[in-house]
Amino acid sequence: MRFTLVLLVLMALGGLAWVRLAPSDPGRWHVNPLTARDPGSPNFARIPPGEIVTAEDPATLAARIDAALLAMPRVTRLAGEPKGGFVTYIARSRLLGFPDYVTVRTLAADRGATFAALSRARFGASDFGVNAARMQALRDALE
Question: Residue 84 in 3-state DSSP?
């Protein structure tokens, strides 16, 4: 019985270590939010192009989005650069370090610039609304 308990604890710790240390393949997560399909589980959120339109050029909007996302806790860049208008970020949960991936693509619009964003979880079937809250925080930061 004791061996089984120790084994279960070690397996749980190994799983938590995998969540935190698993490599993030840009080839898998750096996807165009304009064409990427919705994940099979409800742990994602989007901002569609045209929802937010600014009078600035796409490069300036991309820099503002980059600053807003990097100002959020535990967010780092995974792939792309703001000046290219296509960037993927990793946002990790506070306690266990679960990764979420946020991909943003800025575009020219009739009156300036707009963007598309997709925020999704890597693990699990529920994110407790974290991705939707992150997209709302991005909206708020840009207003």
Answer: helix
Burial of 78 by CB count in 10 Å (0-12 exposed, 13-18 middle, 19+ buried)?
A: middle
Count structural domains, the chain: 1
Question: At 93, phi and psi to the nearest 5?
Answer: -70, 155
Q: Is residue 130 domain-resident?
A: yes
Q: What is the 3-state secondary structure (H, E, C) of 102-135?
A: EEEEEEEECCEEEEEEEEEECCCCCCCCHHHHHH
From CA 133, how far away is CA 138, in angstroms rounded?
9
What integer pLDDT is reported at residue 18 of this predicted model? 66
Q: Give tens-digit pLDDT for 14-29.
A: 666 666 667 889 999 9
Q: Compute the residue count for the chain.
A: 143
